[in-house]
Automatic annotation (TrEMBL):
ATP-cone domain sequence ranges: 46-136
Gene Ontology molecular function, alphabetical: ATP binding; DNA binding; zinc ion binding
Domain of life assignment: Bacteria
Cofactor binding note from Swiss-Prot or TrEMBL: Binds 1 zinc ion.
Alphabetic keyword roster: ATP-binding, DNA-binding, Metal-binding, Nucleotide-binding, Repressor, Transcription, Transcription regulation, Zinc, Zinc-finger
UniProt record, GO biological process: negative regulation of DNA-templated transcription
Gene name in the database record: nrdR
Zinc fingers classed as unnamed: ranges: 3-34
Summary of the function given for this chain in its UniProt record: Negatively regulates transcription of bacterial ribonucleotide reductase nrd genes and operons by binding to NrdR-boxes.
Entry protein name: Transcriptional repressor NrdR
Amino acid sequence: MHCPYCRHTDSRVVDSRTSEDGSSIRRRRQCPECGRRFTTVETTSLSVVKRSGVVEPFSRDKVVAGVRKACQGRPVSDDSLALLAQRVEETVRATGSAEIDAHDVGLAILGPLRELDEIAYLRFASVYQSFTTLEDFEAAISGLRADRLGESADEVAVVDPVA
Ligand SMILES: [Zn+2]
């Protein structure tokens, strides 16, 4: 591995640590030329199989690009989009497979996007799950409403014992 500081063509591993879940390994390296240290992270490469059968590397940027379209005009920051993409990657990596269907990447986006912005979620879900009728939207909106009711019910349950 080349040194990122002086481009020396060799480096020495001084420490290796496997992450808690075993999905990655971090190596601390030192350049024998300039003496500076840097860290590399090794993970299995993750591929996405598109509906067309084309296989391409998983990319957080592509997740962000796809979600950003649904977020147009919504108060969603770049930071939240980056965080969402990170959660999506963690979710698909947690499946443990090296290849994942584009469909499953979309599924992994729905949950965190719903927490981020309900309108963007509806837009994304309508394209991704191919809503064709008003009833499809109604069902999705009812789902959101039901969850909200569920949340307030939880709050009541927390308050009750005190009273
Ligand atoms: Zn160096």
